[in-house]
């Protein structure tokens, strides 16, 4: 009997449009002989499904069901394709856990931890994983430029602490630029992280649970045409994404070890995609994403393809693991 799958997409953040694209790709590639899929768009004012008859039907948030012309639809599993809040920060994970509905991403605690860059870095440092020097600001704090430069140096990156797709990020070369960069980051979040610039090779590595086993995917080297891997580089073709990455076997094994170890110690499930900067022989962690982009051009699907895994197999396996 086919399983009813809700594909949630959209969300409340600046990544809403990117999430809609990811969700559409999941819908396109799910095995129709095994799954009946229902795209569900999550917005601040409404959670809804657009039926094939063109009408819009609201989700009953009491049990996350849909009342459609063909009857009441309850879901066997939720496929999470939301980047940013509320699908990547633990809010919806906790909601589905309370309802007892399996979902494809990690648990609510892991999602909240990894979405908060400050907390993630604090949690993984005891395991010997290197990170850039950092400085934290909350909204309302003074921007003490001299103190920041003493802590992280120049150039540095100013980032929204809880945001993705490079929204709210600036590379700062001069002390005088810090205040505007911080204002830009606060447009995305009320917490800011400022990190030292690391000169090296940027590598993205996906880790998934596939057919019951944790699998580190072939890595992707990121070469941005812009000053760094910003929104244009990620989504408007201003970068090269080279899979497999052009790094030696020693470096590949070490990054794979670190990515697998983070997946294990944080008790992850579903997909993760972690970004590292390789400086000499040492990988420095930048961040971990738990609902990475899923379009055909996105990094994780590129890595799955390099591993011989089709999108149909990638998405189907995520549902199978969740249903276990």
Describe, in short, the structure shown:
The protein is α+β, with helices and mostly antiparallel strands and about 325 residues long. Helices cover about 30% and strands about 30% of the residues.
Q: Give me the Rg, rounded.
A: 20 Å
- What is the makeup of the main sheet? 7 strands, mixed
Task: Give helix and strand order, one letter per element, not per position.
Answer: EHEEEEEEHHHEEHEEHEEEEHEHEEHH
Q: Structural class from helices and strands? A: alpha+beta
**Portion in beta strands:** 25-35%
The CATH homologous superfamily of the largest domain is called ATP-grasp fold, B domain
Q: Which blocks of ≥5 consecutive residues have pLDDT under 50?
A: 229-235
Features:
324 residues, alpha+beta, Rossmann fold, D-amino Acid Aminotransferase, Chain A, domain 1, Dna Ligase, domain 1, 3 domains, seven-stranded mixed β-sheet, 18 strands, 30% strand
Describe what you observe in this structure.
This protein is of the alpha+beta class and 324 residues long. The protein has a seven-stranded mixed beta sheet with strand order 6-5-4-3-2-1-7. It is 31% helix and 30% strand. Strand 5 and strand 6 (71-73) form a beta hairpin. Helix 2 runs antiparallel to helix 3 (108-115).
Topology:
Elements: E1 3-10, H1 16-29, E2 35-42, E3 47-50, E4 56-60, E5 65-68, E6 71-73, E7 77-80, H2 91-99, H3 108-115, H4 117-124, E8 130-131, E9 134-138, H5 145-152, E10 156-160, E11 170-172, H6 178-186, E12 191-196, E13 201-210, E14 213-216, E15 220-224, H7 231-235, E16 239-242, H8 249-265, E17 271-279, E18 282-289, H9 299-306, H10 311-323
Parallel strand pairs: 1-2, 1-7, 8-18
Antiparallel strand pairs: 2-3, 3-4, 4-5, 5-6, 9-12, 10-11, 10-12, 13-14, 13-15, 13-17, 15-16, 17-18
Helix pairs in contact: 2-3
